């Protein structure tokens, strides 16, 4: 908290995995009350541990409604930063479409800790992950449709990297056994199509989830910055983001 206060930032962007379902809202409330700056965030898979996606999102929305400057980008309106730059977001969800889901032996705590994923066989789990990824893409598409006519520069927060190229592990991207659980094809496909169609627009995507940092330039006008994370050692990331 001290480093945040001393950093001189005027707002805080969080790309998820803030806590777990039990402690999520107290942690957000503590940040909001002690920092006294706008906090914009999306949720990560860990934030749903011990509950369901629907229950956590509903509680988070209700919590933010009572606190000015605390914004869950998964459901709030786009936030203009300047006349040309806007902030939007969605959680994203690893949707089992990249990599080799059919063959992988990787299993995550998500499949035990999140009610929506618990007790499913491998095939059913894959279909559920795809469904969740598609819903995130639908949510992101609504935001894009709302802001593209007015804004040329988009800053997009999401938890799960939307491209395999942005799914980093020790300096390398896209391990086929892990990619199904660390990248979201549905949101990436939407972003690629959108910014190929709008070459004069520019998007900077900020994400996390993989715990390793890296930068992936998907298109000349679409860049993805994946932040690093160490358990119990939160730190300020330092991407250079041009605000038009």
Summed up:
This protein is an alpha/beta fold and 244 residues long. It has helices at residues 2-7, 24-35, 53-65, 110-113, 122-147, 179-182, 185-197, and strands spanning 12-14, 39-41, 70-72, 79-80, 85-89, 153-157, 168-169, 172-173, 202-207, 214-219, 222-226.
Detailed description of the structure:
By secondary structure, the protein is of the alpha/beta class. The protein has one domain: Metallo-dependent phosphatases (Purple Acid Phosphatase, chain A, domain 2, 4-Layer Sandwich). 32% of the residues lie in helices and 17% in strands. It has seven helices and eleven strands. It has helices at 2-7, 24-35, 53-65, 110-113, 122-147, 179-182, 185-197; strands at residues 12-14, 39-41, 70-72, 79-80, 85-89, 153-157, 168-169, 172-173, 202-207, 214-219, 222-226. It has a six-stranded mixed beta sheet with strand order 4-5-6-9-11-10, covered by helices on one side. The chain has a three-stranded parallel beta sheet with strand order 1-2-3. β1 (12-14), α2 (24-35) and β2 form a beta-alpha-beta unit. α5 (122-147) runs parallel beside α7. The longest helix has 26 residues, at 122-147. The two termini are 29 Å apart. The model has no long low-confidence stretch (mean pLDDT 93).
Order of helices and strands: HEHEHEEEHHEEEHHEEE
Q: Under CATH, the topology is which?
A: Purple Acid Phosphatase, chain A, domain 2
Kindly report how far apart the N and C termini lie. Answer: 29 Å
Q: How many DSSP helices?
A: 7
Largest sheet, in brief, is: 6 strands, mixed
CATH class: Alpha Beta
**Overall number of structural domains:** 1
| Approximate strand percentage | 15-25%
Q: Please give the radius of gyration in angstroms.
A: 17 Å
Instruction: Return the average pLDDT rounded to an integer.
Output: 93
Determine the fraction of residues in helical runs and give it as a percent range: 25-40%
Main sheet: which strands, in order across?
Answer: 4-5-6-9-11-10
- In the CATH classification, which architecture applies? 4-Layer Sandwich
- Classification by helices and strands: alpha/beta
Structure summary, number of beta strands: 11
Regions with little confidence, pLDDT below 50 for 5+ residues: none
Shape: globular
The named CATH superfamily: Metallo-dependent phosphatases
């Amino acid at each position: 908290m001290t480093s945040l206060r001393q950093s001189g930032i005027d707002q805080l962007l969080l790309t998820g995995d803030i806590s777990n379902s039990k402690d999520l809202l107290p942690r957000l409330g503590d940040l909001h009350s002690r920092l006294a700056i706008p906090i914009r965030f999306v949720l990560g898979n860990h934030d749903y541990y011990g509950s369901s996606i629907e229950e956590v999102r509903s509680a988070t929305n209700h919590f933010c409604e009572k606190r000015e400057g605390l914004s869950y980008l998964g459901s709030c309106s786009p936030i203009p930063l300047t006349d040309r730059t806007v902030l939007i977001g969605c959680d994203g969800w690893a949707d089992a479409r990249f990599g080799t889901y059919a063959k992988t032996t990787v299993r995550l705590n998500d499949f035990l800790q999140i009610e929506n994923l618990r007790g499913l066989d491998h095939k059913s789990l894959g279909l559920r992950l795809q469904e969740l990824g598609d819903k995130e893409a639908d949510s992101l598409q609504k935001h894009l449709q709302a802001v593209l006519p007015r804004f040329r520069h988009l800053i997009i927060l999401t938890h799960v990297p939307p491209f395999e190229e942005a799914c980093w592990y020790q300096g390398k991207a896209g391990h086929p056994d892990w990619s199904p659980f660390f990248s979201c094809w549905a949101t990436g496909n939407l972003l690629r199509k959108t910014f190929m169609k709008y070459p004069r627009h520019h998007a900077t995507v900020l994400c996390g989830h993989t715990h390793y940092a890296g930068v992936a330039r998907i298109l000349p006008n679409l860049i993805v910055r994946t932040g690093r994370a160490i358990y119990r050692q939160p730190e300020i990331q330092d991407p250079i983001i041009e605000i038009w």
